[in-house]
Specification:
Layout (H helix, E strand, L loop, with lengths): L2 H17 L4 E6 L17 H8 L4 E2 L6 E11 L6 E12 L6 E8 L2
């Protein structure tokens, strides 16, 4: 084999070996496309306008149907290791039971 061919084969082998170590990023849960849950206006938006802007929530509170949660998560996985959570956002939107308008918007993240 000629020297350039050996060099090319070595580079190709190295590239294949290191490509297995590239992290694979995955996104799951609610993905904001046009509007973000944290941008909802207290006292203005209602359940119906939220459904139009964001779609259905990721979860509804078990004990209070007037609390909706929009949850998203980003994870990285390298080779055969367990996935590692890089980012997790939970936006809790509470509604006033009387008029179904947004009463509060709280955002929770990983620290």
């Amino acid at each position: 084999m000629s020297r350039p061919a050996v060099f090319a084969a070595a580079i190709l082998g190295l590239a294949i070996a290191t490509s297995a170590c590239t992290p694979l990023t995955s996104y799951s849960g609610f993905q904001a496309i046009e509007a973000k849950p944290a941008d909802m206006k207290v006292g203005e938006d209602s359940k119906s306008t939220l459904m139009e802007k964001l779609g259905s929530p990721s979860a509804v509170s078990t004990f209070d149907n007037n609390t909706w949660y929009y949850i998203s998560q980003t994870t990285d996985r390298v080779a055969f290791y367990y996935p590692r959570v890089i980012k997790r956002d939970v936006v809790a939107i509470k509604f006033n039971p009387a008029d179904e308008k947004v009463a509060s918007v709280n955002t929770y993240t990983l620290k």
